[in-house]
């Protein structure tokens, strides 16, 4: 009886089912060395693009499946990174997470994302779970009221880590973030140059952290340097609703401010909307400046003057710092602080 060609012993599909396709098979099919095929798997930039494409095509044709577990055992790595943020609902944090996730993926790593929701207790629980997953390292933006106990644990576990956007220690552990104090100084100087003297600051939440302290200090320092005192300083929250409530309170007081600097862009966008609800035009009646330069800020009405805090540059620094820390756990502590940039739009009343 004639044997059906699809089930014959020499058929390639049958052979693939009878044994696991190895990296050497892929290398032979692509006419490259096994070491070159391995470099392609690891995403090495040393491989020319035509060669990489040929190896990838051979993998697909042969049905090669990378045995990641065995590779991790050989390397002593899981190629997973714990990414613990303080508030995933914050638009800036969400954008930052998306950037980091893409950057880690380009390096062949996977992010395990967790949200502390500004809870120090939840932060401790999540870090323990990340350790149980044997992550290669941790990037974390500390929750409000965090202290150096979180670093104590990470150091005890010998887990490489980087503090991002906020820090609990300036001397223990790498850090990358923007110069938030300079961001507020830039905003104050710009408003003073426009002729404002009654300048208010709408701060963040009532619980302190490094980013809020630096903003407040930068505002106070520059107001003092300009010979001014804060017209109002309302400590509320970090959302548009908080901004709307704060500006309503300020404008109801005698001698209200002529200019307002906000903790972040969402707060500033809330201020824009509430001022218009009261019949006031931002930029003409009250100048408004935000911080962070979210994509939505250019589309608001009027468009929001803000201070860009270089999220992509901060994200790139975080990824580089963590790679360095994983490669050399005993390297000196490094802090990367990115300079902010004023983005002038309509809401401050100046010509763009």
UniProtKB/TrEMBL annotation:
Keyword entries, A-Z: DNA-binding, Repressor, Transcription, Transcription regulation
GO molecular function: DNA-binding transcription factor activity; transcription cis-regulatory region binding
HTH lacI-type domain span: 21-75
CDD domains recorded: HTH_LacI (cd01392), PBP1_MalI-like (cd06289)
Record InterPro entries: HTH_LacI, LacI/GalR-like_sensor, Lambda_DNA-bd_dom_sf, Peripla_BP_I
Classification via PANTHER family: HTH-TYPE TRANSCRIPTIONAL REPRESSOR PURR-RELATED, LACI-RELATED TRANSCRIPTIONAL REPRESSOR
Name of the featured protein: LacI family DNA-binding transcriptional regulator
Taxonomic placement: Bacteria, Pseudomonadati, Pseudomonadota, Alphaproteobacteria, Acetobacterales
